[in-house]
Design brief:
It contains 8 helices and 5 strands; from the N terminus they run βαβααβααβααβα. By secondary structure, the chain is an alpha/beta fold. It has one domain: Rossmann fold. Helix 2 runs antiparallel to helix 3 and helix 4 crosses helix 7. It starts with a strand and ends with a helix. The structure holds adenosine-5'-triphosphate and magnesium ion. The site of adenosine-5'-triphosphate has 15 residues, from helix 1, helix 6 and helix 8.
């Protein structure tokens, strides 16, 4: 089974994946948790290029690098793991490409669909958990995580992070449009709830849908 987690930065994906992996392990299920981009030697090199490179990368270049990294992890790791009966949990998959590169950066959605179909070898998750949160709240979490002092005045925060917030608003709207087109695959969760409450919802949904 392939389970993916989506949501803007700071929504709580990694937190929930850790809890879910432990829950599945307690049930005796062999589980593999992976993050994108990365997961193979080549894919990790591409990750460094994407995240650490000081040179400029165009939106199209960014898309193709993400897609190259995805093609590696899909063929070399994910498909073999699924074939051997493992449950694979992905911290982001192609819905991030649609939301970030499509709705966020403005790349053509039809072109994205074609590239996604190629880079994933047509692999579609059995279920995708979308952790929904207002960009302001997610940003606050990231600030407190990095111990950056928060300006309590909202207008101050907007001024500091205006372009960031606008970008994340587009990304969140993109996720919501994507979900509306494919309601059956997605489970939407209020990411503002406490971590344990969200975890309970996730395990409840998995139990209902897949008899886990
Ligand atoms: N439900 C929650 N309520 C309050 N704080 C949370 C919740 N879930 C996670 N956090 C905290 O918010 C921060 C971001 O969480 P996490 O790293 O899980 O998010 P993420 O979606 O994986 O972010 P990124 O996309 O940047 O990897 C962490 O400090 C985490 O402890
Ligand atoms: Mg994370």
């Amino acid at each position: 089974m392939l389970i993916t987690f989506e949501g803007i930065d700071g929504a709580g994906k990694s937190t929930q994946i850790r809890k879910l992996a432990a829950w599945l392990a307690r049930k005796g299920m062999e589980t593999l948790s992976l993050r994108e981009p990365g997961g193979t030697e080549t894919a990790e090199s591409i990750r460094s290029l994407l995240l650490e490179s000081s040179g400029e990368i165009t939106p199209l270049g960014e898309l193709l690098l993400f897609s190259a990294s995805r093609a590696e992890i899909v063929q070399q790791v994910i498909i073999p793991a699924l074939e051997s009966g493992k449950t694979v949990i992905l911290d982001r998959f192609y819905d991030s490409t649609t939301a970030y590169q499509g709705y966020g950066r403005g790349l053509d959605l039809d072109m994205l669909r074609s590239i996604i179909a190629i880079s994933t070898c047509g692999l579609v998750p059995d279920i995708t958990f979308f952790l929904d949160i207002e960009p302001e709240a997610a940003l606050m979490r990231k600030f407190s995580e990095k111990s950056i002092p928060i300006a309590f005045d909202n207008s101050e925060l907007d001024r500091m992070e205006r372009s960031g917030l606008e970008f994340y608003r587009k990304v969140r709207a993109g996720y919501l449009e994507t979900i509306a087109l494919e309601k059956n695959r997605f489970a939407c969760l209020e990411a503002i709830e406490p971590p344990d409450a969200i975890h309970k919802r996730i395990t409840g949904i998995l139990t209902d849908r897949f008899n886990l």
